[in-house]
Each structure stands twice: as structure tokens, then as C-alpha cells.
Design a protein that fits this description.
The protein has 967 residues and is of the alpha/beta class. The chain contains 33 helices and 26 strands. It catalyses: N(6)-[(R)-lipoyl]-L-lysyl-[protein] + 2-oxoglutarate + H(+) = N(6)-[(R)-S(8)-succinyldihydrolipoyl]-L-lysyl-[protein] + CO2.
């Protein structure tokens, strides 16, 4: 049987289909054969192919000795080899003579050539996608590999792989039933066979489906793509496609003109996604679907809302207006996270259709199971057990699709009885880059879509600059889902014309790609030129279509000024025009003997490397830094993949520095780095979240390993988590690193009055389960990183790192704060006018992190420098009881206030309040100043953010605010 399987794989699809159902008969036939198996002349091996020849000889003697399908096959082959078919003898009749050896050799060669052609066809069906022209830029291989499979005939020389010659190109060959390239023809020349295979499998569509273990499904896909002439479009269909491309591109252009400095995560470079989604919806509606539920990340969401869901444009444009007030309920969110529900007429099918776009946070793929659950519920309530009325579409980014484990988990729900939604159409917007991470560093699989293979979902890769190929693929995908009730993936291989967002500068890390992108002709112009050249539309008609949609946008823009809807605040990063400017800026700082946050980090790492301490920094986009502040890997602007890590060239015998962009995964990557940190105590291992609250998806690792690891397993670990944190109007998913969660899990006792001693600080650190800090100065950040290694034991370190402070002019430190004799300050006391006359101070404000700079500015504005002192907690846990006691006693007549920018039920207040009460022995109150309790960690509304900031700053410096109140 093992030999039979070898034969099956060797002889191609036809042999496989003929043999597979008859394993038992083949085995019994072989057992009846006697004598040694000797390969015929021309045989490619002495094993699998010789069985074929033995069967042929046996058939010549008795046609009933083989299966009837082989009988039919051998008759056809013999008919081509001679003027007429031989008349096989019955087993009971002894032939007068055996066929001549030369005749057998000639026939054997013909059999093998036919089987070789079948193997060739199968090779293209299996591996043709590896050489398909998928990248619109023409510079990358979608499968990350430029290797051409040896069994694909891309040159005459490769004919030899099949023992074929150039002379065979014009010979006619019988086509197997496992291909449709012949259409109504049953034979084709080898030259034509190769040409048609190249056209089907190696142009702008790459097909992965031969791993599917269902013959019917494979045949269905072959017929859809191999049949000659299937990709033909009527003039009406082409004009509709052009109109949809106009709307997709001009919408992005309009936003860019009106709000050039706003982040909107536009669709430029993949404008074809709009007609792609509309085609899936059109085709599904045609087949009876009434309700489509979509989930997607932020890129292109506004365009989808406008041109797929058909949300009123004035509603979208209104959200860009910073003067509009927030809604009465809820915190709101950034505009490219919002969802929509809309019932309308599908104009292609004239049928009602309900479209839902599920709101999604910045956690990208987190929406996947939510969409599936909503779809399942809709199917249940409609009694739609087969999914013929309700379906789901999921749009993914390439890096997230490969990197986030929830994608895999969602796929594995797809066929479970209580969870199946009877098939989902997955559309991957394959930018061929993550935020800044090259795909070669983001995944180990050839394609980002390989995870879909686990459920036998066909994967259709398509060049997004070929709109007609995209539309055809999407139409087939919708048909597949309706026919087989199974998942299908459409991989739109495209590019990202701008950076990760409109304020991002991609030339830092992808210089060659973006040089090509800047030269790339937009897909709309390409397609318009094509249709104009073939007289499908005129230039005038095309320009009128553009003018028509531009008018629609302008009129909606005018109406948007009168709308009173929820305003959604954008968030900004300052664009940085050049890398040299960054490096020269750092050089200038050193001349002034001062450092900013990024340089302090650089110096901390560099000093440890000099001392032989290995430093490893991992996470999403850490090489450059999410906020374009780090730049630890420099990229050659002319040569692809030529980079330099300067920190590995500081000292002659330094330890190695590893900085690596990670897969777009938190759960998996943080677990990996935790294990890495376990291997040696003499390494500083750091994991940075893109934004602080992105650790949400790694909560299992944090809860089960980092917080409790020492208590459960007596296992020390010195891993460092860098979590960007700060309330700056960036919306609920880009503000809070959730400090309350870490503080809640801290094990120091709030009610135990400590026994102070000379080693109190070190003893506290040894007894705690982890250390939680929020540094307000670059020098303190420098020191806490070094302290992590200099301590005689290891504890996890949680650092809430800044965003706006990275470039704040006041957030700088002098070299004098970092030289020998200096160290990490758990508390930074007031050092201004108020500290020189503490008896006159009326209020002492305690705070931590970025809010300190807001407080200092407001104190100066209100001329209260001598009446209000401000003290910073840099280490929150374990709580610095000794230093807090000292500060409170220094200002005996002052009211004590805790001020934080986080909401009252979040942040630090619930943690610090009982500890203040313990150290003060409940003799003095500490009043809370900050935002009111809330469900969301931050508002998505810019105006609401500023109003609440002003409100709590006013309260912080209102010296009569707490008169008459009791505690």
C-alpha cells in the first residue's frame, strides 16, 4: 500500500482518482502477480512507475485483470500509439506471442508522457500561486520567497523534469477529468496546456486549494478558474466597477483635502476593497442573503461606512469637527472604531439587505469572535440553520491575521455545531507590512493567510491593482460560501500609500518600498485608462463621474456643519521628516549635557551593555518606537534590508543588544519573552506594548505567570513591561495602561504600619510580587532600568511610560542627575519656592506621571507657587511609606490632595488612599482630585477631554474647595 501511495503522488491527479477508490483491488492484483518487477526502458524509477507498466502488460494479456477505468485508459493510449487499438486476449486464451519489446517501450513512453502532463497540470494547481504576479509594486514576493518550484515549467529547460523535450510541445495530449483548461476540448498541445495553466495560476490570481480533502470542492474551484473565458465582464459591469473605484478613491481624496492633519487610517493603496466588499454583498444578496454582519480593523473603516454601509456622509464629516459636543451617554470613541447598522435596497439585486458593521477597538482581531457570535444569534432568531439568510464578512490586516491568536481560535469555532455560522468570507488587506514591521520579521509562514488552511478554507490571493481579477475572485468567494457553507479567504495583495496613519512617516523603515509607492500609478487611473482605451467609457464620462461624487461630498460637508452628533476626537503624532534630524537633535542635547526620554533609555541600555549585561527589547514596532522616538535600528535609504544597530557597536567587549519588532501578538510574544527572561538573571528583557492597554490580550500571562509566578513556583523573574500611558484625548483604547489592575494585584499590605530601618527600601522590594512605577523624568527612567539589574534579586517591573512627554520641552534631565552617586528616586519632593517656606504652604498635592506637568503649569498660571507644593510618586508599589511620611510632616499646615488624571474608579486612588491613611494614622484626610468615575478608561471626545481636564485642575488649586468637609 505504501508503494501505491508513492505511485499515486508520482502519477498525478488522474492516476490518483483512478487508483484511490480501488486500493484493495490493486493490492490483490499485485499479490497475484509473480516474478520480479522490472522497470521498462524510459521508466523514471524502478518502483511506482513499474507498477504502471506491469499493469499494462497484464492488461495486454487479460483486460479483466485491471479495473475497468484502467482498461478504458489503456485502450485510449494504445489507440494513440498505433493505427487502431489492439484486441486484448482473454485470460483463458494463450496469445501466440508477446508484443515486441520495442512496441512495449514505445507504448510505455506514451503512457509516461501522458502521466507526466497530468503531473504537470497538478503541479500548477498545487504550486502555481508561488510564481503568480501578486505584488502591485513588483518588488516583493507575497510568499516571502523568490524560489520557483522545480516542477513548474517556467522555461524550456524545465521540460526535462518530466522527461519531455521541446519537440513534445506541439504534441496533443489527452486532458484528465481533473482539469477544465480545455473547455469543450478533450486534447490540447503541450504548448497550449502550459500557456493555459500559466494564464490561470501564475498571473494576478494565486490559488491555494489543493490541500482540501474533498474532490467535489476541488473540482468546483478548478471549474471556476480554469474554464477558458470565465473572467469576462460586460460593459455595464465594468462601468459599475469604475464608478465604485471613483467613490472609493475620491472619498479618501476628499478627507485628505479637508482634514490633512487628521488621522483617518485611509484606504489608499487598497481602494479596490470597496468594490470587492460590494461584490461579495451583491452576489450574496443574489443568492438570498438578507443580513450581512461585518467586522474590520480601522484601516478603511470610514470608507466602508460611507460607500458600503452607506452611512450619510454628513454624519461622518461631522465627526471631524472638534467644536461639536459629546452625546449625553457614553464616552464615545475615535471615529475609525465606530460601527453602524443600516437597512437599504441593494441596487444591483433590488432586494432588501441589512448591513451591520460591528464596532471594534484597536485590538484589531478582537472583533472576530464578536461578529461570529452576533451572526450566530441572528441566524438562530431567524430560524436560519443553514446560513442562507444571514452571513458574516471579516476584514483583516495581514500582520494581525498571522500574528493574533484569536484568529486561529475563531477559525476553530467555524465548524463546531453550536458555534458555526455556515461559512465566513475573510478579506485580508495585505499591505505587505505591519505598522513598521517587515513581514519577514512578523511571521514564519509563507503567507499571512496560512492559518486558514487548518479548516480547509480555500485561499484566493489576488493582485489588488487588477480590479477585474479582484471582482471575479470575490464573486467566486461568495458563491463558495453559499454552496459549501464553509470559510473562504480573499487575500488582497496591495500596499499602503501612506504610513500606518496619515501622520506617520514610513520612509524611516521602508525606504525602497515607499520610493516605489510614490511612483505607483493609482488603481483608478490605471483602470480608467484601460476602459477608455477599449471604448467602454469616454474620458468625458469618467471626469463627469468624478465631478458628480465630488459634488456629493461637498454638499454633505456643508450640511455637516449643522449636525449635532457625537464628535470623535482624532489623535496626533508629529510627523518627523528625516532620520538625520533625529540623530543631530540627540547630538545637540548631549552638548547641552541633557537628555530626553529616548536618549535616557539609550544611555541606560548602553551602560548595561558595557557592563556585560545582555539587553533584549521586543514588541510591536519597538525598533523605531510606536511614537517615532526610539530609532534603535537605522535603515539604509537606498539598499533594501541593509540596517545598522548602533548600540551593538559601542564598546569593544560589550554584551549583545537585541531589539526586534514582534508578531502582532501580545499573548504569545509576552509569554515568549517571559520564558526568555527565565533563562538568565544577567539579562535585561523588556516587552513593550504598542499602547499600554494592549496588554489586555496578554492578561493570562500577566495574571498566571508574572504577578503570581514567584508565589506559586518560587521562581524569580526580572521581565520589564513598558506600557505607554497617559490621558491625552486619544480615546479609550490609547490612553490607559490600566494601572489599577497591576496595583490591585500588588501584595503589600495597606493596613500594616511598616517598621522603618536602613534597609527598608530593599526589604520592601524583596517582599513584593512586582514593582510598579510611573517616572516623570528621563533620569529616573534611566535609573530604574539600571536598578532592575543592580538589585541582588529579580522582580517583574511594570513601567507606565509616557507619550506626549517623549517630546515635552520640560521633560528633560541633566547629566548631573545621572552620574555616579545618583540613583532612582521613589519620590521626587517639591524643590521650588514652596519648599523653602513649608510652613506657609496651604496645600500639598501628591501625583504621579504626566499630570505633574499640567499641575505645574496651572500653578504658575494662578500665581500659587508659594502656597501649593507638588510631590511626585515615582514608585507606586511597593508604596514608599517612609518618604510619604517625611513629605507630609514637612508641611504640617497644608491640606493633602491626591491628584490624578485617570477616572476615580481607575488609576491609583483606590490603592494610595488606604496607605496614606495608615501612614498618617487617620489624623489628616487626603482629598481626591481628578475625573469622576466612568466605565470607559477615557472619552473619545476631544472637547469632553479638555473640559474634564480644566475642571479637575481648577479644583486642584481652589484652596477653599474642601473647607467644611469631613472625612
Amino acid at each position: 500500500m505504501s508503494q501505491l501511495r508513492l505511485l499515486t503522488s508520482r502519477l498525478g491527479v488522474q492516476a490518483a482518482r483512478l487508483l484511490a477508490p480501488h486500493d484493495v483491488q490493486m493490492s490483490s492484483w499485485r499479490s497475484r502477480s509473480s516474478g520480479p518487477r522490472t522497470a521498462f526502458p524510459g521508466s523514471r524509477d524502478g518502483g511506482g512507475s513499474s507498477y504502471m507498466e506491469e499493469m499494462y502488460v497484464a492488461w495486454l494479456e487479460n483486460p479483466q485483470s485491471v479495473h475497468k477505468s484502467w482498461d478504458s485508459f489503456f485502450r485510449k493510449v494504445n489507440q494513440e500509439a498505433s493505427c487502431g487499438p489492439p484486441q486484448p486476449q482473454a485470460l483463458s486464451v494463450v496469445p501466440e506471442s508477446r508484443p515486441a519489446a520495442s512496441s512495449r517501450t514505445k507504448t510505455s513512453k506514451l503512457v509516461e508522457d501522458h502521466l507526466a502532463v497530468q503531473s504537470l497540470i497538478r503541479a500548477y494547481q498545487i504550486r502555481g500561486h508561488h510564481v503568480a504576479q501578486l505584488d502591485p509594486l513588483g518588488i516583493l514576493d507575497a510568499d516571502l520567497d523568490s524560489f520557483v518550484p522545480s516542477d513548474l515549467i517556467t522555461s524550456i529547460d524545465k521540460l526535462a523534469f518530466y522527461d519531455l523535450r521541446e519537440a513534445d510541445l506541439d504534441k496533443e495530449f489527452q486532458l484528465p477529468t481533473t482539469t477544465f483548461i480545455g473547455g469543450s476540448e478533450h486534447t490540447l498541445s503541450l504548448r497550449e496546456i502550459i500557456q493555459r495553466l500559466e494564464s490561470t495560476y501564475c498571473q494576478h490570481i494565486g490559488l491555494e486549494f489543493m490541500f482540501i480533502n474533498d474532490v467535489e470542492q476541488c473540482q468546483w474551484i478548478r471549474q471556476k478558474f480554469e474554464t477558458p473565458g470565465v473572467m469576462q465582464f460586460s460593459s455595464e459591469e465594468k462601468r459599475r466597477l469604475l464608478a465604485r473605484l471613483v467613490r472609493s478613491m475620491r472619498f479618501e481624496d476628499f478627507l485628505a483635502r479637508k482634514w490633512s492633519s487628521e488621522k483617518r487610517f485611509g484606504l489608499e493603496g487598497c481602494e479596490v476593497m470597496i468594490p470587492a466588499l460590494k461584490t461579495i454583498i451583491d452576489k450574496s444578496s443574489e443568492m438570498g442573503i438578507e443580513n450581512v454582519i461585518l467586522g474590520m480593523p480601522h484601516r478603511g473603516r470610514l470608507n466602508v461606512l460611507a460607500n458600503v454601509i452607506r452611512k450619510d456622509l454628513e454624519q461622518i464629516f461631522c465627526q471631524f469637527d472638534p467644536k461639536l459636543e459629546a452625546a449625553d451617554e457614553g464616552s464615545g470613541d475615535v471615529k475609525y472604531h465606530l460601527g453602524m447598522y443600516h437597512e437599504r435596497i441593494n441596487r444591483v439585486t433590488n432586494r432588501n439587505i441589512t448591513l451591520s458593521l460591528v464596532a471594534n477597538p484597536s485590538h484589531l482581531e478582537a472583533v472576530d469572535p464578536v461578529v461570529q457570535g452576533k451572526t450566530k444569534a441572528e441566524q438562530f432568531y431567524r430560524g436560519d440553520a443553514q446560513g442562507k439568510k444571514v452571513m458574516s464578512i471579516l476584514v483583516h490586516g495581514d500582520a494581525a491575521f498571522a500574528g493574533q491568536g484569536v484568529v486561529y481560535e475563531t477559525f476553530h469555532l467555524s465548524d463546531l455545531p453550536s458555534y458555526t455560522t455556515n461559512g465566513t468570507v475573510h478579506v485580508v488587506v495585505n499591505n505587505q507590512i505591519g505598522f513598521t514591521t517587515d513581514p519577514r520579521m512578523a511571521r514564519s509562514s509563507p503567507y499571512p493567510t496560512d492559518v486558514a488552511r487548518v479548516v480547509n478554507a480555500p485561499i484566493f490571493h489576488v493582485n489588488a491593482d487588477d480590479p477585474e481579477a479582484v471582482i471575479y475572485v470575490c464573486s467566486v468567494a461568495a458563491e463558495w460560501r453559499n454552496t459549501f457553507n464553509k470559510d473562504v479567504v480573499v487575500d488582497l495583495v496591495c500596499y499602503r500609500r501612506r504610513g500606518h496613519n496619515e501622520m506617520d512617516e514610513p520612509m524611516f523603515t521602508q525606504p525602497l518600498m515607499y520610493k516605489q509607492i510614490h511612483k505607483q500609478v493609482p488603481v483608478l487611473k490605471r483602470y480608467a485608462d484601460k476602459l477608455i482605451a477599449e471604448d467602454t467609457v469616454t474620458l468625458q464620462e469618467f471626469e463627469e463621474e468624478i465631478a458628480k461624487y465630488d459634488r456629493i461630498c461637498e454638499e454633505a460637508y456643508g450640511r455637516s456643519k449643522d449636525k449635532k452628533i457625537l464628535h470623535i476626537k482624532h489623535w496626533l503624532d508629529s510627523p518627523w521628516p528625516g532620520l538625520s534630524r533625529i540623530l543631530w537633535g540627540r547630538a545637540d542635547m548631549t552638548k547641552k549635557r541633557e537628555v530626553d526620554w529616548a536618549l535616557a533609555e539609550y544611555m541606560a541600555f548602553g551602560s548595561l551593555l558595557k557592563e556585560g549585561i545582555h539587553v533584549r527589547l521586543s514588541g510591536q514596532d519597538v525598533e523605531r518606537g510606536t511614537f517615532s522616538h526610539r530609532h534603535h535600528v537605522l535603515h539604509d535609504q537606498e539598499v533594501d534590508r541593509r540596517t545598522c544597530v548602533p548600540m551593538n557597536h559601542l564598546w569593544p567587549d560589550q554584551a549583545p543588544y537585541t531589539v526586534c519588532n514582534s508578531s502582532l501578538s501580545e499573548y504569545g510574544v509576552l509569554g515568549f519573552e517571559l520564558g526568555y527572561a527565565m533563562a538568565s538573571p544577567n539579562a535585561l528583557v523588556l516587552w513593550e506594548a504598542q499602547f499600554g492597554d494592549f496588554h489586555n490580550t496578554a492578561q493570562c500571562i500577566i495574571d498566571q505567570f508574572i504577578s503570581t509566578g514567584q508565589a506559586k513556583w518560587v521562581r524569580h523573574n526580572g521581565i520589564v513591561l513598558l506600557l505607554p500611558h497617559g490621558m491625552e484625548g486619544m480615546g479609550p483604547e490609547h490612553s490607559s495602561a490600566r494601572p489599577e489592575r497591576f496595583l490591585q494585584m500588588s501584595n503589600d499590605d495597606s493596613d500594616a504600619y511598616p517598621a522603618f530601618s536602613e534597609d527598608f527600601e530593599v526589604r520592601q522590594l524583596y517582599d513584593c510580587n512586582w514593582i510598579v512605577v510611573n517616572c516623570s523624568t528621563p533620569a529616573n527612567y534611566f535609573h530604574v532600568l539600571r536598578r532592575q539589574i543592580l538589585l541582588p534579586f529579580r522582580k517583574p517591573l511594570i513601567i507606565f511610560t509616557p507619550k506626549s512627554l517623549l517630546r515635552h520641552p520640560k521633560a528633560k534631565s541633566s547629566f548631573d542627575q545621572m552620574i555616579s552617586g545618583t540613583s532612582f528616586q521613589r519620590v521626587i519632593p517639591e524643590d521650588g519656592v514652596a519648599a523653602r517656606a513649608p510652613e506657609q504652604v496651604r496645600r500639598l498635592i501628591f501625583c504621579t506621571g504626566k499630570v505633574y506637568y499640567d499641575l505645574v503649569k496651572e500653578r504658575s498660571n494662578q500665581c500659587l507657587d508659594d502656597q501649593v507644593a507638588i510631590t511626585r510618586l515615582e514608585q507606586i508599589s511597593p508604596f514608599p511609606f517612609d518618604l510619604i511620611k517625611r513629605e507630609a510632616e514637612k508641611y504640617p499646615g497644608a491640606e493633602l490632595v491626591w491628584c490624578q488624571e485617570e477616572h476615580k474608579n481607575m488609576g491609583y486612588y483606590d490603592y494610595i488612599n488606604p496607605r496614606f491613611m495608615t501612614i498618617l494614622k487617620r489624623t489628616r484626610p487626603i482629598w481626591y482630585v481628578g475625573r469622576d468615575p466612568a466605565a470607559a478608561p477615557a472619552t473619545g471626545n476631544r472637547n469632553a477631554h479638555l473640559v474634564s481636564l480644566k475642571k479637575f485642575l481648577d479644583t486642584a488649586f481652589n484652596l477653599k474647595a474642601f473647607e467644611g468637609k469631613t472625612f
